[in-house]
Each structure stands twice: as structure tokens, then as C-alpha cells.
Amino acid sequence: MHRKLKRIWQRLTADRKRFGLFCSLLLVGLLLWARIIVIARPARTAVASPVVETVIAAVLTSDTKSIPVTLETEPIKNPFSVSSDVFPMLRGMTDNNSRKHVVIGSSGEIEVVSSLHLDAVMGEMAMIDGQVVQIGDIVGPQNVTEPLRLIEVQGRRVILLAGDRRYELSIAPHHR
Known about the structure:
Largest sheet: 4 strands, antiparallel
Distance between the termini: 90 Å
Helix content: 25-40%
Radius of gyration: 36 Å
Order of helices and strands: HHEEHEEEEEEE
Number of helices: 3
């Protein structure tokens, strides 16, 4: 059997025209065979129709059984909402105790600002001492009369405001 196949292969490849004709006919045959398979089993498709009060669409399957599909008129879940289970809110008061306001002098305020470290900046958010803050958020101690508030994010630096005093934090060290 092996010799017979070998002899047929030699005869087939000996003449280039005959081998080219054989390959072309084989390709056409495979394409026709694939087309028959596709026609016999059409892909499952669904086409959206205009808004109707009762939305029921019948989907035809390859088994010619109709399956009713009920669609909602409005989406149930907002795909752009953030899940609080996956991304819990880090900020937020869990107790109802009122905070006492502490007055920090300008020298104490400068010490607090100098102890802060700007880790990263992205858009209108910054990471200061491992805490992500946005413009308008309080940075550092929150129980003071004039807390440090993030007011501006520019490139690799941020501006903090406490009362009428402005402070700048930068990722790059200051050049003196």
C-alpha cells in the first residue's frame, strides 16, 4: 500500500501542469464543501427591532426550534458605575463624633507641609503620603481650623492652600 501511494505521488508531481490542476480542483472542492456546511448550519444571529411595548424576539437555531427571548426596555445595571464591593470608599466618616478643631501656628503648619511627600501626579489627582487626593480634598491633619486643601495640580507639582497661605509640593527635589 505504501509503495502504491508513493508511485501515485511521483506520477502526480512529475508534471507541473497536472499537479497545478490537481491543487486547483482540490481547493475548489474544499471551498464548495465548506459552503455546504455553512448553509446547512447557519450562524445564530439576532437583529434589533424598533422599541416595542412587549419585546419578544424569536431566534431561529439550526434545529429549527424557536426560542423566545425577552429583552428589557431599559438597562438594569449601569455599565459605567463603580462597584463598592470591588472598590470600597476609603474616605468617609464611620463614627458620629464631632472633631475638635486644633489651632496650628504658622511654624507648626510649615512642619506639617515639610513632612508631606508627593508620590505621584495624574490628571487632577495626586498621591500624597500614600493617600490619593483630588482637587478640593483636605491633605494632612483634618482636625485643624484651617486645613491644608489641594487647590491645583500642575505637571509634577501640587499647590496646597491653608487660609491665605499657599504651599507647593513637588516630586522633583528643589534646586537651590
